[in-house]
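So, can you check this one?
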Amino acid sequence: MDSLVVWSGVMIACIVVEILTVSLVSVWFVIGAFAALIACLLNVSVPIQVAIFLVVSVICAIVARPMAVKSLKGNIIHTNNDALIGSHALVIKRIDADHMGEVRIKNQIWSASSLHNLTLEEGEYGEVVAIEGAHLVVKKEGN
């Protein structure tokens, strides 16, 4: 009966830790402790209970955690200027290795430099790959 108290305590402690941290780490130990608790009720030896606890916890963490993290994370929606990354921009002032140019994107004009110091001519389109300070970094489309 002592192991019944131990596994119940482990379950409760792990539940409390998970509620406080929401880290998806201790929840798998809750499942493992529950499996060990069932083994205890079936009069399985303590070493086997510990093995069940460890095996079930590890399997749950390996199999279910990535799915749970992905589900909780959801789709990240870029806000403000980060939303420009990946967008297409029209070069309205030549960009080369020595000079910053300008691009128009979503009806706004931005200063821009090019990725790898490639030249983008006026009228070409580029893709925004980063924002550095107050200017965009663009690359030639197709590169």
